[in-house]
Amino acid sequence: MGAPRNVQRFASFCYNCVSGPDFLKVKVEDGVATEIEPNFEAEHVHPARGRPCVKAYGLVQKTYNPNRIRTPMKRTNPKKGIDEDPRFEPISWDEALDIIATRLNAIRAKGPIDEAGLPRIAASFGHGGTPANYMGSFPAFLAAWGPVDYSFGSGQGVKCTHSEHLYGEFWHRAFTVSADTPNCKYVISCGANVEVTGGPTAVIRHSEARIRGYKRVHVEPHLTITGACSAEWVPIRPKTDPAFLFAIIHVLVREHGLAKLDVPFLRDRTSSPYLVAPDGLYLRDPDSGKPLVWDSAAARAVAFDTPGAVPSVDGCHRVQRAITVGADAARTEYADVEGVTAYQKLVDHMARYSPEWAQTICDVPADTMRRIAGEYLEAASIGATIEIDGQTLPLRPVAVTLGKSVNNGWGAYECCWARTVLAALVGALENPGGTLGTTVRINRPQENRHASVKPGEDGFMVQHFNPTGQNSWESEPTTRNIHRTLVPIVGRNGGWSQALGPTQLAWLFTEELPEDWSFKTPTYPELWFVYRSNPAISFWQTRQLAGAIAKFPFMVAFVYTIDETNYMADLILPEATDLESTQLIRMGQTKYMEHFWDHIGVVLRQKAVEPQGDARDFSWISGQLAARTNLLPQYVAQLNRGIAGVSPLKGEAYDFSLSPDRVPEPDEIWDAVCKAATTTLSEGKECHGLDWFKEHGYWAKPASRLEWYLTPTLERQGLRYELPYQERLQRVGAELGNRLHERNMHWWDDQLTEYVALPDWHDVPGRWERALVNAGGKPEDFPFWLLTTKSMQYHSGGNAGIALMDEVSENLHGHTGVMLNADTAARLGIREGDRVEVRSHIGATYGKAALMKGVRPDTVVILGQFDHWATPYIKDQERASLNTVAPMSIELTDATGSGADIVRVSVRKMAQSAGVRKSA
Amino acid sequence: MKSERPILDRVPPRQQGDWDIRGALNFMLGGAGAGLLAAVACATPLGLDLPIMELLGLALVGAGLFCVWLKIGRPWRALHVFRRPSTSWMSREAWLAPVVFACGAAAILTQAALFFYVAGLLGLVYAYAQGRILKANIGIPAWRRWSCVVLIVATALAEGFGLLSIGAVLWPALTPFGYALAVAIALRYAAWRAYRADLRETGAPSGTLQVFDAFAFNFGLIGHGAALVLAVAGAYASQPLVAAAGGFLASLAGALFKYTLVCRAAFTQGFSLPRTPARGKGKSGVGAQPGWQAGRGS
Amino acid sequence: MSKRYAMAIDLRRCVGCQTCTAACKSANATPPGVQWRRVLDLETGEFPDVRRTFMPVACMHCANPPCMHVCPTTATKQREDGLVTIDYDICIGCANCVMACPYDARSIERKPRYSYGTPMKSEEARFDEGKLGVATKCTFCKERIDEAERTGKVPGVDPEVTPACVNSCISGAMHFGDVNDETSHISQLLSDTEHFRMHEELGTDPSVFYIWDGGEA
User: Fold this and answer.
1) CA nearest A433: which of A619, A179, A153, A91?
2) How far is residue A440's CA from residue A423's CA, in Å, rounded to a whole number?
3) A576-632 residue pLDDT tens
4) Cβ within 8 Å of B, C 82-101
5) Segments of chain A assigned to CATH 2.40.40.20
6) Where are the beta strands (DSSP E) in A86-175?
7) pLDDT confidence of B6, banded at 50, 70, 90?
8) Which side of chain C, N or C, has fewer Cβ within a 10 Å radius?
9) pLDDT digits (tens, 9 = 90+) for A246-262
10) 139-178 in C: which are within 8 Å (CB) of B?
11) Is the dihedral of CA C160, C166, C172, C178 positive or negative?
């Protein structure tokens, strides 16, 4: 090994999971990337101190993986399927682009919308929008094209914290919700595995909090990494978290009582004082239509925004004259009616949910729940304040965080509601130390959730629901997951709203429609783009789903290696990966998870090494597609609008816009983006081009921590959080039901029951047992709950095929196996390392047993997501997957269109040899 | 591609994987050879003509060292082994070997009793050095006890007299050494008992104890009981074949024991966690030492 | 007094993410399956009172290193600053040190091995035949420590002269420095906290300290 001639280091970032961007440097020796290192020059800007997580260290192998696709290829086997070798043959980029352009031009000639009213083009991008950080200017091409259907998800909606995204954004502009970890003292974490999914920022913040002495109680059926790092583990029965949280609310409102809660917050910042009529709707002023409150000073009902009024938070009050407005504007007049405050409705509603009741549901001792509730209330330190940048704010250092599977599917609405109510009761919602939202996706602008706060109806923030009125409802779906028609709360903010729609419905409806379906029959998209997305293993009932994918007429996949989805592709195109291409993205301000920073700015991902083979920069591919489909002017116009970057390329005081006369090269695009971004972010004080960024890596400026908290923004506008009573949701749900019933459709009736003003317990786990019975199975044959969990090593980024990630992940017990309670395993005669079968009513998956004490005896856990059968390297390792055996059904879909990673299974010991796995 | 690895990480003790049968053969052959040199020395006062047995002893020692040479990663640098006699018993064994060979060769060539005596003594030292090689390897709890050194030397003696008794087939005059063999077997048994008691007393990897538990019955019954009866019976009845059978059993048991000690019961130390950490407001808790059976004395 | 470089690992902070494992493999180009450093996942207690602890382990750079004492070749040495080193040009790969180490820290690779069977460019660029057939282990990134001697930078403070694992640690669990310097960060951390060392009873006097309580809380 001779001494290298030339060693260089390139600053870059990793955004393979939603918890990016994380800074890094790529060490390049004689043109070969050899190491990933932290970027200590960003130590004071990046909350994770310039350090990326373990995944980034796999990027060198990712670059040189011999299994990479290095040249465009076309399918030569017209048959598609798991057992059909695609027989990909190399072609030139010219030929590949011409094939796509010919198809696109033919589609364009017919019009972008087909006879079913659906876009003829579909696109699927993986993990939480992170592919956008690697696809360069492709969004500009898609915007230039026009309608694109993002219905076909690879797990969004079911593998994310879906209900939090929708209800979180509705209640407090919280697409993702986080504890204010830097200030928090007490966290109830219901399955939120933040040490695994929160990236280095969450890891260091919680690490600091542990040393500071905060307490985190982790509530989950198995002892995850986060559970391990918590002060206390509460092994709850799967999917019973709503009962646990209801019991906590019960203790606060019924045992401790209003006097110990944050009365000013409830009175002034929530709808707690709004008076509710016997019909469950707000009593309103007959003239203005405004909700009424009981003014304790004047002893009369007044409109909620009456100056000088001191609304009563609790109690029942006689109102002389009022109206209510129900579904479809149905107006009811009341005289001398008893109005109950929304808070009082809550107190009455929670009467039945005592800890003693909950312990029979969730297998957690009542005393434990009562203690936790007391600790939560005490830690909230109601009355305490903190000074931030010269402003005095309430300090309420308590939070409840929710994880995947708690936060999606049936029961998730109840959990999200309970969590947000718990924050509101102690004034911890969007106040220092408490429960924060960290970004918006359904509202605009995405980069600043404060700017999305505007006055709406009834003293609340404006909401952009999909309409449910008789004339405004979208009565024929315009997307294949029918999100605008079926899910009012998901809104209509372009790709994000659509991607957050009921993606499993899009898949289900490719195979079978409900009997009373009266919309047009959905079609397949004529061309489907897929990038960094592998639904064939990352969704559910995956063998069948792979079969559905095989029926898509034409798939263009931007690929790294062959995988289970692009195995069905007609054309595969190698894109320059993480270390081989260039892109500038925004950092700080609002991002996912715990990414509330002390800085805002932009960071560059730069080409550190030449692309392998004939892989091409995504921005180059995008430009070529635009040119060949005669969309160049529109494409450049979208670039100039700033769609691929951070800000428009032309402003009042600057102009870095690109010419539509020719295809801009990637470096030209990013040079202009760099200049426009720094000019706007620095308000004209600085302007830096691509060369400057290649040297410095990022540009940042300090941001006030006041940006972290939304409550002061609401306070300035005199707005309230729509809590605890959900009059609007109740009304919207009734309207949606009316619309569907007018079309004689009842297949969504079960989901309509979720639209209630105050949620009830409804035997959430029992839904999975009933689904099993309805499918012809016997619950006693499938005695265990199968759950899944994420790992930092594998979580997103396609890391299962990276040998280094696979190797280091094996240091974690159970990472590559089937985690079983050791006593349960002993009863079944299963020993550590035995090959076991995990079978549900729809199939079986196989792996090695990992025996643990830290998992409930009735629970089995398989870390997601495995069971690859096409992805090189990992397909040779037998890895079990919940996705293979979890069913996809309308029955198990909640009102938001989500489901949860849970299924009833049996477990038995098998012979050691692995069977054929392609068609298990 | 990656090898098949157990799902559970290497946290608890596991059988060491770097010294395979070749490593074990150094102790099996070398120990027996060294023991034979000592036994031959004991037979020397009787005026027996035993150069072939002496040669066999040297050959066994040499074969053991050859097996080690086959095993090492860089065989052409083997001479570096002499560089640290100050602390390394492996170096000392290496230095000792040529002296043993020289002395043994001198005995064979000159037939001088003194050389037989010195070679016999060096044989004992060689066996002791092998015991110390094991003892210095504190990463293997089954090896690092003094009782292991005693057992290694006792085993060498039992093997040496065992081989000597086998020699009675050719030289019936050796038959009375069945009594000496019986004494050596008894000593080895006592050492074996003491060794296992020591492990149980101080604690050891569960795997080590389980391997020895499974090994103990046959080792005791055949390797000691049957071997001792045959040795005494052969000597008493002047039946060389019977004494040789006893010697064979004693030697075979010794070899199997050393194979077991190196290749099956040589569990690593594993890891221990004296205290679990305090996470936030959570309290520190009691720790654990996975795969480890605590000693009675602890 | 001469320096004694040591590592302090705060078990309260460690989340078992294996970033240090991967960073070590990246920095030292170890072949697949060879981990000079890794993080153990230890479970204690009985359901439902169960705990999991993540414990990074590697060569402990013992002050009384059994590996050095048994090494017949002098390949394993101890430097004045406490680092236990292996001279790959002297080692014969006898594995005596592997047996002597109670920390499972050493390994010997006899043949080249690559992540995907055939070498990738990045593996080719860093292949070192000198590491075949000899014992290898964590070096505390000794080239970086040597760099500190040349430049006056401080290991554990300046990233350029700090072991790769410590640099990479995302939870702030790993600390490095001179424990013979009372003013060093690591000395102060150790004086403020409760800690233990692994298998101390074996008399190895290891240079890795595990913090389990005390300090800032």
Assistant:
1) A179
2) 19
3) 999 999 999 999 876 788 888 999 999 999 999 999 999 999 999 999 999 999 999
4) 90-96, 98-101
5) 764-909
6) 88-90, 121-125
7) very low
8) N
9) 999 999 999 999 999 99
10) none
11) negative
CA distance, residue C172 to nearest chain B CA (Å): 14
What is the identity of the amino acid at A895?
A: A
Indicate the domain borders of chain C: 5-214
Distance (Å, whole) CA C37 – CA C57 = 6
pLDDT per residue as tens digits for the range A503-527: 889 999 988 999 999 999 999 999 9
What per-residue confidence (pLDDT) applies to A4? 60
Q: How many CA atoms lie within 13 A of C196 on its CB side?
A: 16
Question: Of A55, A387, A422, A9, nearest to A244 (Cα)?
Answer: A422
- In the structure, what pLDDT confidence band is assigned to residue A869 with cuts at 50, 70 and 90? very high
Q: What is the pLDDT of residues B22-50, one digit of tens each?
A: 999 999 999 999 999 999 999 998 877 78
Give the length of chain B.
298
**pTM recorded for the entire structure:** 0.96
Q: List subunits contacting chain C, requiring 3 or more Cβ pairs under 8 Å.
A: A, B
The three state secondary structure string of B120-176 is HHHHHHHHHHHHHHHHHCCCCCCCCCHHHHHHHHHHHHHHHHHHHHHHHHCCHHHCC
Q: Is A230 in contact with B6 (Cβ distance < 8 A)?
A: no
CB contact under 8 A, B282 and A813: no
Q: How confident is the model at residue B8 (pLDDT cuts 50, 70, 90)?
A: very low
Q: For chain C, first and last CA: distance in Å? A: 32
- Put simply, whether A878 touches B (Cβ < 8 Å) is no
SS3 content of chain B, % helix, strand, coil (to 5): 70, 5, 25
**Whole-number Å distance between alpha carbons of C165 and C178:** 17
Domains of chain B (ranges, CATH numbers) = 21-270 (1.20.1630.10)
Residues in A 475-494 with any Cβ partner in B closer than 8 A: none
Rounded to the nearest angstrom, the gap between the alpha carbon of residue A214 and the centroid of all alpha carbons in its chain is 27
User: What is the CATH number that goes with domain C5-214?
Assistant: 3.30.70.20
Q: Which residues of B touch A210 (CB under 8 A)?
A: 279-280
Q: Can you tell me the distance from the alpha carbon of A128 to that of A502, in angstroms, rounded to the nearest whole number? A: 15
pLDDT of residue A920: 39
In terms of CATH architecture, what is A764-909? Beta Barrel (2.40)
- pLDDT above 90 (res A446): no
Amino acid at A876: D
Spatial neighbors of C9 by CB under 8 A, at least 6 apart, are C55, C56, C173, C174, C175, C208, C209, C210, C211
Architecture of domain A162-408: 3-Layer(aba) Sandwich (3.40)
Q: Where in chain A is the domain with CATH 3.40.228.10?
A: 162-408
User: Pick from A599, A575, A579, A578: which is nearest to A587 by CA?
Assistant: A599
Quote the tokens at residue A535. 């639904």
pLDDT at C217: 43
Q: Give the pLDDT confidence score for residue A113 in this predicted structure.
A: 97
ipTM value for the complex: 0.97
Which chain A positions have a beta carbon within 8 Å of C215's beta carbon?
A: 211
Neighbours of A299 (CB within 10 A): 9
Identity (one letter) of the amino acid at A124? S
Smallest CA–CA distance, residue A662 to chain C, in Å, is 36
Structure tokens at A484: 């605008």
Average pLDDT for A696-715:
96
- Chain B residues in contact with A214 (beta carbon < 8 A): 280-281
Q: Which residues contact B283 (CB under 8 A, 6 or more apart)?
A: none
Q: Do C44 and B140 make contact, defined as CB atoms within 8 angstroms?
A: no
Percent above pLDDT 70 for chain B: 96
| Residue A626 contacts residue A633 (beta carbons within 8 Å) | no
